[in-house]
Amino acid sequence: MFGVRSTRRVTIRDVALAAGVSTTTVSDALSGNGRLPVATRSRVAEVAERLGYQASPAARSLRGRRTGAIGLYLPDEAGNYAYYMELASGAASAALAHGMALTLIPRSEDPAQVTGFPMDGVAVIDPVEGDPVVRALAGLGIPVVTCERDLTPGAVHAGVIEGNYRPALAALLEHLAEQGASRVAMIAPGPQTAWGLDMRTAYQEWRGRNGSRPDLTYEVPFPPSPELLREATLRAVRATPAPDAVVSGIDGAAVGALLGAVDLGLRVPEDMLIASFIDSPALRGSMPAITALDLRPADMGRRLATMLSALIAGGTTPGVAETLEPQLVFRESTAATLQR
How far is the C-alpha of 115 from the C-alpha of 230, rounded, in Å? Predict the structure, then answer.
């Protein structure tokens, strides 16, 4: 006999039972009210998303004059990179769990094009120092949170979530050295974003611990076009004398480095190590699979939307800051000592 899937609407009580909290806590967590721990808000949002809970239209209307939408301001070329798409997906899921819609906002030379969207708050991804659009968004009177810190002098936003990257970046570089690499080429953006600055700082500190390590930085604009990224990657791989390792701080460059090495007749990892400061499905599925930092973009997106929800509802005080820990994933592309 075939079962019939229930079409009963998931209630706030269902979410409370599954999360092990009270219905009041669920209501506060999803609306951003109260003074709940961030971990509790995130757990309730995840349970609500898993169960398919949606607030009723009547409940959503209690938000008064709010639009019920938040913005996600993304860099140029974001659609070319898995990191930004995974982050946007996580943010959209968490926004829906909090009864809000997510609007993707592309970068624009005209701040008026961006600031005209009706929204209750906005998350800025990888803010670029001096970006006039970010300054215009901050002047709208709505909460602005950033994924990574804004390096613009005097910039103050309602919240920030930072990845604790520098220790992880240093650990990856040390891993390459332990595998025998001494000439490590790095493909990196400039220092106009916190991500680019932290990457370059970690690399220079690593070089400083051994003065014989050359500076093999290959800079690309942030974010680069696929053509500029490919050009920088090939220059790094084909440099003379050749590097014994290439590490990329731009999503997609590590696969390009792998292909470039193969074109030159080099074996990975025997002749050249390849690693990435950003993980992606392409790196996990390449042959050999490529060592990388998992920056947890979906988690970043969910936490940004949850933080915005709490700020919009007044459940969190502006100035909130959180840290996200990346994970170093070792794969075959840097297992040189196992190949000898």
Answer: 34
In this prediction the pTM is: 0.79
Q: Is 273 helix (H, G, I), strand (E, B) or coil?
A: strand
CA angle 6, 53, 2 (to 5 degrees): 15
> Residue 320: beta bridge partners?
159
β-strand pairing of 184-189 with 245-248: parallel
Q: Which residues contact 306 (CB under 8 A, 6 or more apart)?
A: 38, 41, 42, 45, 94, 98
The structural domains of the chain, ordered by start, are 12-60 (1.10.260.40), 66-164+296-325 (3.40.50.2300), 165-294+328-339 (3.40.50.2300)
**Distances 210 to 179, 214, 223 between C-alpha atoms, Å:** 15, 9, 31
Helix axes 38-51, 12-19, angle to 10 degrees: 120
Amino acid in the structure at residue 87? L
Name, in order, each residue with C-beta under 8 angstroms of 53's C-beta and a sequence gap of 6 or more.
10, 11, 12, 14, 15, 97
Both tokens assigned to 9: 């609407």
Residue 8's Cα: distance from chain center in Å? Answer: 36
List all residues 6 or more positions away from 140 whose beta carbon is below 8 Å from its beta carbon: 115, 122
Q: What is the percent of the chain where pLDDT is above 90?
A: 57
Query: Is 79:95 a contact under the CB 8 Å cutoff?
Result: no
CA dist 332 → 73, 266, 283, 292, 329 (Å): 35, 15, 11, 11, 10
Type of residue numbered 262: V
Give the whole-angstrom CA distance, residue 334 versus residue 340: 12
- Radius of gyration (Cα) for the chain, nearest Å? 22
CB count in 10 Å sphere of residue 247: 32
pLDDT digits (tens, 9 = 90+) for 195-238: 999 999 999 999 998 777 899 999 888 777 778 888 888 888 88
CB 46 within 8 A of CB 20: no
